[in-house]
């Protein structure tokens, strides 16, 4: 559920550059459900949202960065 909310929030704010509420949602997930759930939510959300914004060689690093954002 949190992955869906994070992906939707990133897609809704596509018109506003450099504003991604996705990170805040991932951090809230990590605080509420634990770091393992936050890491999984971060990596899955970034992977799936890049289907909208474009995959590339940077995707794995974005997944890692959002995964560790909740630690």
TrEMBL record:
Provide this UniProt record's keywords sorted from A to Z: Membrane, Transmembrane, Transmembrane helix
Pfam families, per this entry?
A: ECF-ribofla_trS (PF07155)
Chain ranges passing through the membrane: 12-33
Q: Which domain of life is it from?
A: Bacteria
The name of this protein is ECF transporter S component
